[in-house]
Amino acid sequence: MLFDSSDDMRKVQRREKNRIAAQKSRLRQTQKADTLHLESEDLERQNAALRREIKQLTEEMKHFASMLSSHEPLCSILTSPPPPPEVLYATHSFHQPHISSPRFQH
């Protein structure tokens, strides 16, 4: 009978351990679902903001395209012959350092 009692005790301990492990597993699962839900909501907000930005930029692009098409018939640069290459690629008589910010000077 002592053997049976010891066996029963191990079964009870194993069941308790299993119950605790299952409880922890369910809790982790719930936490993961909550985290995914919050991430999903955040991504939805980001997506909506990006869609608004796309819409605004598309409208801006249409505006500039309209301005350009209105300007093109009147543009003297487009109607005059191109300047000779030596004018386009003339060397400048002034020299400026590449990076003029004091924090980049050594």
UniProtKB/TrEMBL annotation:
Q: Which UniProt keywords apply?
A: Activator, Cytoplasm, Differentiation, DNA-binding, Nucleus, Repressor, Transcription, Transcription regulation
**Location in or out of the cell:** Cytoplasm
Which cellular component terms (GO) are annotated to the entry?
cytoplasm; nucleus
Origin superkingdom: Eukaryota
Q: Does the keyword Transmembrane helix apply?
A: no
User: Which CDD domains does the record associate with it?
Assistant: bZIP_BATF
Its GO biological process annotations read: cell differentiation
A molecular function (GO) held by this record is: DNA-binding transcription factor activity, RNA polymerase II-specific
**Domain (BZIP) ranges:** 8-71
The record's listing under SMART domains reads: BRLZ (SM00338)
- Region Disordered: start and end of each range? 1-40
**Which family does the UniProt entry place this protein in?**
Belongs to the bZIP family.
Can you name this protein?
Basic leucine zipper transcriptional factor ATF-like
Species source reads: Calidris pygmaea
